[in-house]
Amino acid sequence: MGIAFWIFSLLALPVLHSAKILTVCLIGGSHYLLLDEISHNLHQHGHEVRMLLQLGNPVITGFSYAGRAHSYQTSTWSLGEKYIEEYNSWFLEQQTQFLLGRDNFKNFLHFMGHLSYQCDRLLGDKGVITFLQSERYDIAILDGFNPCSFILARKLGVRYIAFYPGTLNGPLSIALPSPVSYIPVFGSQLSDHMNLWGRAKNLFYSFLAPVGQELVWSTFREVAERHLESPPGGLEELHGGAELWAFNTDFSLEFPQPLMPYTVLVGGLLNKPAKPPEQDLESWISNFEEAGFLVVTLGSMVSSVSVDPLLVELVAGFSRIPQGVLWRYDPKRWPSHLDRPPNVRLVDWLPLNDLLGHKKARLFITHGGQNSLLQAVYHAVPVLGIPLFGDQFDNVVRAETKGLGLTINPTQITRELLSSTIRTLIQDIRFKSSASSLSRIHKSHPVPPALRLIQWVEHVLHSGGGTHLRPASLSQPWYQRHLLDLVLLFFLGLLGPVVLCWTLCRNKNRRAKHKKTQ
Questions:
Q1: What DSSP letter does each residue of 31-52 carry, written as one string?
Q2: Dist. CA 449–CA 264, nearest whole Å
Q3: What is the rounded CA–CA span in Å between residue 263 and residue 281?
Q4: Are 99 and 392 in contact (CB under 8 A)?
Q5: What is the rounded CA–CA span in Å between residue 368 and residue 360?
Q6: Positive or negative, the Cα torsion across 220, 221, 222, 226?
Q7: Are 253 and 377 in contact (CB under 8 A)?
Q8: 10 Å Cβ neighbour count for 353?
Q9: What per-residue string of b and e applies to 154-190 under the rule 16 or more CB within 10 Å gives b?
Q10: What are the pLDDT tens digits along the chain (518 aa)?
Q11: Beta partners for 160?
Q12: What is the dihedral of CA 246, 251, 255, 259, to 10 degrees?
């Protein structure tokens, strides 16, 4: 498939001279995996690519940060060992809070505060900034989740494309048409089919969304004012300046909704045909014969379950099923007092794509990260979602609505519920059937996601930018976009005659009373 992909690329795309492209990765984990893939694909297509990679964010346990950086250039930047140690300690503590069901907006703002501090340090590094400015890039591809990426692009004076690693309706708005009657607002945990109370909840969340965005921007405002000659008015202005927005999603998982010309869906960049696992893993899988095996991972940054009662219930639940359980878990952190069932194998890193593509993979137990769900769709494997934080709660609602699987909140897990839910997902053929249907939808797109993104990047480069893709609404004040000035005018137009009539009648009555008293 790899050879066919690049042959098709050469035939499908117009000849374009090599462009100088900067990719910006200031967050680790799955964000890095995606930007590494993008950088590699652009390099393979003949472009000169350099990634600005910030080291020290929570790294992917058991996986080298080198990625495929040999195929493109890399400039690394770090805040120093002391800060990295403190930051990763904080993040490990957050893992525990997530597993206890304590994810809230305050924690998200705290996280954004860390990103803001890191941003201030990066923009203040004259050596890095001067070098990047001297390179004169044709375009930058940013992590659209991190506001610092946009501030950096403004600082460098380079046009930029925003790549968002999640779904269309994330925590930070990009002014997509989003009727609240059928498009769930981020954090609402609603599907696109809402009853009266669901629409009321969605409307309430739609009022909270701009408040949340302003609070996020407040953590970056001082940084932008300190490092930019002309600071933006807010995140909306920075987002509106993107030549293009590319999203790590597609309509196999996404609820249908209106798109704008400046949006493109490229979900599934990490999906590949499965390769046979190593002989050691293959031998272990064969021990379970037709019962097959489960893949368990709670994300690229969650290396272990640090809540002891939850871990006890998970282990007890897994011991009740006949399938093998291949669990991504740092073996060094396994509690010494807890026996591991014979059907459970721990690995500090697992080739997720290859395992989900194995013919004996029966179920995927996941935190509900966007990459994980897209890989489950690609390989037609049902999922059991255990969401922990952020967009994962909304993601698993989408997966459940589409028939891909079921969800259990981590605070509600018991051995009985876990084992019975696993049996339901494996034995009820409807889940496998839905997974296969979603897989066909995902794979049948006429252009693979990697090539789709390259085509759009090169379109922007060919056409001198994405101005022709951006509607006038992006430059309108919010009150004009929502016609509130017109509503006010109509209100005054209707109210004016009423007030005038009331005033005239009142004066007439006063004169009549005055004549009677005379």
A1: HHHHHHHHHHHHHHTT-EEEEE
A2: 10
A3: 41
A4: no
A5: 21
A6: positive
A7: yes
A8: 17
A9: bbbebbbbbbbbbbbbbbbbbbbebebebbbbbbbbb
A10: 455 555 555 554 444 578 999 999 998 888 999 999 999 999 999 999 999 999 876 544 444 445 566 789 999 998 888 888 888 888 878 877 888 777 788 888 998 999 999 999 999 999 999 999 999 999 999 999 999 999 999 999 999 999 999 999 887 777 788 889 999 999 899 999 999 999 999 999 999 988 999 999 999 999 999 999 988 988 988 999 999 999 999 999 999 999 999 999 999 999 999 999 899 999 999 999 899 999 999 876 677 777 888 999 999 999 999 999 999 988 888 888 889 999 999 998 889 999 999 999 999 999 999 999 999 999 999 999 999 888 899 999 999 999 999 999 998 999 999 999 999 999 999 999 999 999 999 999 989 999 999 999 999 999 999 889 988 877 777 778 778 888 888 888 887 787 778 777 877 666 666 666 65
A11: 140
A12: 40
Contact (Cβ atoms closer than 8 angstroms) between residue 118 and residue 54: yes
pTM for this model (two decimals): 0.89
What is the Cα–Cα distance from 226 to 228, expressed in whole angstroms? 6
Contacts of 131 (CB under 8 A, 6+ apart): 75
CA distance 328 to 334: 11
Give the CA count within 13 Å in the CB-facing half-sphere of 6.
9
Token reading at 305: 């379950």
